[in-house]
Amino acid sequence: MNKLRFYAARTLRDDAALQALSVPQSDLLAELAGKTVALIGNARSLAETRHGAAIDATDLVIRINRAPMPSPESHGTRTDWLALAVRLADADLARIAPRRVLWMSPKRKRLGWRIAHGDGFYLHPLADYLALKDRLAAPPTTGAMMIDLALRSGLARLTLHGFDFFASQSLSGSRTADQVPHDFGAEAAWVADMQRRDGRLILA
C-alpha cells in the first residue's frame, strides 16, 4: 500500500484496508506456542526490583508503549515485541529496537506509516478490543489487551513484570490513575480471575 492509500484508509477508518498490512493473528499466536513469555509493564515499582535477568532469560520479551528501561538489573535489555497504543518517535523506536510491532489501539489515526509497514507488523482487531472493553466496563490498557491476546495461544508461561495497576504510577509519565481512562481496579480483579483460571499466568 502506498502512502496516499495508507493515509486515506487511516482517515476514512477503513479498517479492512489497514488489516491487510497485518500478519494474521493466528500467525502471532503460533509464534508464542510452547514459549515462556515476559510481558513488561511500566509501573515505577519495577525499577526497585532485580527482575532483569529473569526477564531476559525468557523465550520472548514483550514491552509496552514507550518501554522505559532505566536499568538492566530491573528491566532487562531485550525487546522482541513492542505493543503500542501511542505514537512513538523514530529515536524511541530505534532505542527499543523490537523485532515486531503490534498496534493495539483502536485509534487508527495514531498509526504511523513506518510502523504499519515494518516487518511482522500486527494490527489488533477492533472486535477484540471492544470485547475486552465490555468485559472490563472501561477501555482496556495495552497491557490488558496483550494478556488477553497472549493467553489465547499455546504459550508455556506468561509472567507479568511491572504490573501494579497504577499503585506506583507509570515510568512513562506523571499522570495519576484518575487522569487516565482506565479502571485499574477492574483490571486487577480481571487478572486475579485469569490467574485462578489459567496457571500459566504469573504476576511477578
Automatic annotation (TrEMBL):
Keywords: Glycoprotein, Glycosyltransferase, Membrane, Transferase, Transmembrane, Transmembrane helix. The keyword Nucleus does not apply. GO terms for cellular component: endomembrane system; membrane. GO terms for molecular function: sialyltransferase activity. Its main location: membrane. It is a single-pass membrane protein. Pfam families: Glyco_transf_29. It is found in: Endomembrane system; Membrane. The keyword Glycoprotein applies. This is Glycosyltransferase family 29 (Sialyltransferase). It comes from Paracoccus haematequi. The lineage of its organism: Bacteria, Pseudomonadati, Pseudomonadota, Alphaproteobacteria, Rhodobacterales.
